[in-house]
Amino acid sequence: MAKDTIRIANSRKAALDIVSGEFSAAAEILAEYLHRVTDARFNVRTDMGESPAIRLNAVDHGESGFRYYIDGENAVIEAGNLQAMSYAVYDWLERVVGCRYYSRSYEYIPFDANLEVAFDDYAFSPILGYREILYTEYGDPIFAEKHKITPTCKRSENWGFWCHSFDSLCPPDKYFDEHPEYFALRDGKRQRENTQLCLSNPDVLEIVCENLAKFIEKKPDALYWSVSQNDNASFCECESCRALDEQDGSHIGSVLNFVNKVAARFPDKIISTLAYWYTRQAPKYTRPADNVHIMLCNIEANRGMPIESDPRSADSKNELLDWKQICRNVFLWDYCIQFRNLVSPFPNLRVLGPNIRFFVENNVRSLFSQCNREIGGEFYELRGYMLAKLMWNPYINERVVMEDFVYGYYKQAGRYVLEYIDLIHDEMERAGGELRIFGSPEDARETYMSEELYNRYESLFDTAIEATAADPDTNFRVHDAALPVWYAGILLGYDDEAKRAARIERFREQAKRSGLTMVEEWTITVDKFLAEHCQ
């Protein structure tokens, strides 16, 4: 059956107006992009009128959902709020017109002075209500909106504390000297440094609630407030805390009992807590209060194979299945990063789709993907692009999305970049599919990062760079994509001294051009890394 068609422009002249209704910002976005596509100027008006138009209509399709279709001589785009309408417009431009938002610095905009489009009635509302990707690009609210992702700045509006808040709510520097009993008992001694709270102490509950109330007073519009463990494993071993944990068969027992009591004091807020590290296992008996929000972190999962089918990720799989039984809506904190080697090869692209499908099929309705908080990282544009597409619709064909990106972003070099991606994934899987977030290229020195394979990887990027020599912008992007391979070669010390020196200089030069500053989270800068390997 043929799709309905509608003429958008004739010989660089608009064939219809845009009726904005209450969606003036989305209408201006639509007019701007259609101008870039057709070179026509599109009139934006608020009244319906009689002439053909692209009509932006206020019709509720859920918080983020929308619909678009052709009605006679009109194209109609429907959504129920400002954000959803912006999503709808960007989606229509992408799916119907053919625009691509590959990165903040490069978009593909097709040109057609006589634009005519054909499309069916299409409606969509995402399964995931909250979608966030921790790459610096997605901190840009405009770029995030194009990909229907919650930008970090939006999160900061809705959240008071995000995680690891015990030290903020009951600071050891303020309370420990006079009240060491407020803090974790470890090996018979109360611990001041790298500590947790003694969650069975009633005075700690009062202090946390008193301090939380003060924070809320400063930010009253924030709905979510994290009351959650610090980023260490020094849980309290006192008799009362241990009893709570033993009763629930998990260290979440003392945490959840405490957090439920805090939540009862703040019924108009959602109190979030972490199921992380030693608290990942769901409790046997205690249940989260209605306004308690569980943020499950699958930090121990293997990243090289799908979580659902990989025996090495059985704990992460079963933890989600257990939390699913007691939480209607699980917030999942997932990881797409190698913390100790932010720039190294990290061949996890093939597991993104299977993992996200497994998550949503088991009650995950909010998903946060922790990637690189610093500038850059291995295939950060491609990985972010794929994550955004899969968070919006987990049932897309991610291979088609990846190829569309690689050929569109790397152009003449696309075939070589794709060959590299396939080769390193094939070899990693052949070696057993082991990929850890605290790993290193050195872990794979005898397998997929052997010297023989490394030389093939580097050769593919050399060819890709040569293929784009006449296209400076694309050539820059290919150089940027090569950084992880060069980083691994420097770390592994392959080749003779002259080749190593040349590789170091290539890495140094491109890192500077790309604005890369860190190679390990928090601690190792590019300059420090290079100084260590130039000796």
**Fraction of residues in H or I helices:** 40-55%
Q: Biggest sheet: strands, sense, closure?
A: 6 strands, mixed
Rg from alpha-carbon coordinates:
26 Å
Largest beta sheet: strand ordering: 5-4-6-8-7-10
Structural class: alpha/beta
Strands, total number? 20
How many helical elements?
A: 18
The percentage of residues in β strands lies in 5-15%
Form type:
globular
Task: Explain what the structure shows.
The chain is α/β, with parallel strands linked by helices and 535 residues long. It contains 18 helices and 20 strands. Among the domains are: 122 residues, Chitobiase/beta-hexosaminidase domain 2-like (Chitobiase, domain 2); 124 residues, no CATH class; 125 residues. The strands form six sheets. The chain has a six-stranded mixed sheet, covered by helices on one side.
List keywords for this structure.
535 residues, alpha/beta, Chitobiase, domain 2, 20 strands, 41% helix, globular
Question: What's a quick, concise take on this entry?
Answer:
This protein is of the alpha/beta class and 535 residues long. It has helices spanning 24-38, 82-97, 141-146, 152-158, 166-169, 172-175, 202-218, 239-248, 252-265, 314-326, 352-360, 380-392, 398-410, 414-430, 451-467, 472-492, 497-514, 526-533; strands at 4-7, 9-10, 13-14, 17-19, 44-45, 53-58, 66-71, 74-79, 116-119, 122-124, 130-134, 185-186, 189-190, 224-226, 270-275, 292-297, 330-335, 364-370, 518-520, 524-525.
